[in-house]
Specification:
Two copies of one chain form a homodimer. Chain A contains ten helices and no strands. With about 220 residues, the first copy, chain A, is mainly α. Chain B binds a DNA duplex (16 and 16 nucleotides) through helix 3.
Amino acid sequence: MTAVVSPSHEEHKRARGRPPKTEDERDDGNRRHQLLTAAARLFRRQGFDATSTRDIAAAVGMHSGSPFYHFKTKDALLCAVMEEGMHAAIARQTKALRGVQADQPLGQIRRLIRAHFETLLGPGNDFVPVMLYEHRSLNPGQRALLAALQADYEAAWTPVLEALHASGHLRAPVKLSRLFILGALNWSVQWFDRKKSASLDELTDAVVALFLKEC
Amino acid sequence: MTAVVSPSHEEHKRARGRPPKTEDERDDGNRRHQLLTAAARLFRRQGFDATSTRDIAAAVGMHSGSPFYHFKTKDALLCAVMEEGMHAAIARQTKALRGVQADQPLGQIRRLIRAHFETLLGPGNDFVPVMLYEHRSLNPGQRALLAALQADYEAAWTPVLEALHASGHLRAPVKLSRLFILGALNWSVQWFDRKKSASLDELTDAVVALFLKEC
DNA sequence: CCTACCGATCGGTAGG
DNA sequence: CCTACCGATCGGTAGG
């Protein structure tokens, strides 16, 4: 319980005589990222509570205690999954908006919607769905962290929706419109089936046709 | 540490031939329903996995093993919560549609939306939100049971949306429209706050303005 | 419905 | 990162 820690405490973490690792396992960053990916997949499939840290360890060929070398607690791992998801989502969104001019809100909203579908439904994109559906398992500090990232993400929608409102393409209040539109998209995680549903482009067309007036 | 325990150990806690029950506890059906209500509330607040059967028992003043007198397993209790929610939702929806004529799809859709908000966000209506967000914890048989009830519920929307499509109030494909509209509504469970958000009537207005064309 | 209990699982840790 | 382990909790049950 004292603050004093043996100085040599963890310094030998690597080196000393480690067995040679395969390419995939060579550096810590890589192992850590494998844990993140496996956790995202399992959390999405089974839920956070129903996934044990042993499941995650086994998925990347570790032993039961080893994930705690990379993440202090199970919910820190969950939080890291969500952060990773939000950073990727924000990057994808920013890139998508780069292709349209700022005075073309119809083109902008289409790209926002399409990028959002990619984030939610693209192959291997489990990180953001986990964030949407396992929010409850975070502690207050983690929740605040993620709320800030989510606010960043959603902030990009507001000026676009305001422009659409001004031009008559959107009739409902902007704030509620954003909540309902994002809700409609987010819910697709529940029913979308890559083998049976429409393509992401077709979903985007349907959403645009559903929400926007022709003028 | 032996298994032998003094026989008089705690038996007198409420003495020999059962103490008189209060009105609320008198019959089994009532106790069972108390369990359902408490479970719905806790499952909604904490999630299914994070709620123990002991939590539920305590919430209605039972001891830890007693819920299993009323429900065979924990997921049977979850399933019963969801069934209760769907039966109430279907009844509410049917009643709502009784007030409009079948040839007035605008009036019908408004009532369907308003009834859905009541089911999701009305005070004490925890049953359907649990169904929406704890689907994963059911076994396959239970899932099929609930899927049938959900199909019943959603079937009422299709002819209304088809009529709106025919009259030009809806431009997107009917099936995708239903999925996106219900998704937009269902997601409100995540952000709606009775103390800060708009009223259910205002939400209904916004949804109608958002999805339907003026013609 | 209560009592007393079991077997299993789980997050997490010390120590190397 | 592995080994060996702990304390706690949990769903569920027998027997009354």
